[in-house]
Amino acid sequence: MVAEVSDSGVGMSKDVQNKLFEPFFTTKPVGKGTGLGTSISYGIVRGYDGTIDIESQPGKGATFRLTFPQAR
Predict the structure, then answer these.
(1) Is the pTM of this model over 0.85?
(2) In the chain, domain spans
(3) What CATH architecture applies to the domain 2-67?
(4) Could you write out the DSSP letters of every residue in the chain?
(5) Could you give the dihedral angle defined by the CA atoms of residues 18, 24, 26 and 28, in that order, rounded to the nearest 10 degrees?
(6) Hey, which of 3, 33, 42, 54 would disulfide with 28, CB 3.0 to 4.6 Å?
């Protein structure tokens, strides 16, 4: 099963994409966020043997693709 979520926002650089799932990584100013959402989401998806792929370019939005194995 594949689910995709896309937006037309500001997008992400490759540097941000490479760090996105690290616990406590955030692009927000100090005191404005803990940076746990994507790392928790990644852990949940991996717990179901799934993957998350990102396609993004600065100024062009982003697409997150969640892929899960077929149910038995």
Answers:
(1) no
(2) 2-67
(3) 2-Layer Sandwich (3.30)
(4) -EEEEEE-SS---HHHHHHTTSTT--SSPTTS----HHHHHHHHHHHTT-EEEEEE-TTS-EEEEEE-PPP-
(5) -170
(6) 33
